[in-house]
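Why does residue order matter? Because the sequence determines the fold. Keep that principle in mind as you read this record.
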Amino acid sequence: MLENIDENAVIRQELTLRVTLAGNIDPDFATRLSTALGLPLVFPTDEKACQSGLPSDDAVIGSIIDTIIQHENSADKGKGYVLGGYPLNVVQAQSLDIALARSGQAVDTALMLETTDPLQYSEDKPLRRYYRSQNKLILFAESSAIDEICSSILQIHEKRRIQR
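Structure:
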């Protein structure tokens, strides 16, 4: 196991990881994953927009982009980010992709929770299809350990890097 941890640390240093935890994700899980990957956690919030009720997708995406740009421009430049709990649907995912592309960014990986709840499965199916069609989707079980998920992400990114 120690060998795997050391290998993952080397891979992590060489990669820029832009991960979205799409769908309904527990904030505690998002925090633990971002910590394990050594990446900042970006939550989609916009305080100004929230004051008038539910924020619009444009306001949320604007807030996300601003936070990502601030991080990229900081003295503590990172190797990516983890976006927690967004997008929730395909329209939001497409809007996010467009906004990220304008700022020279892209989501590399979309993590989604595998569910046995038929209603949740039905609601998430279009979003899973969207990210699967871009070869960005990683499904994980609720019982998956954080280190297993991190290893999967890092191995997939290393394979993509080698293929380029």
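Residues 100 and 150 are 23 Å apart (CA to CA).
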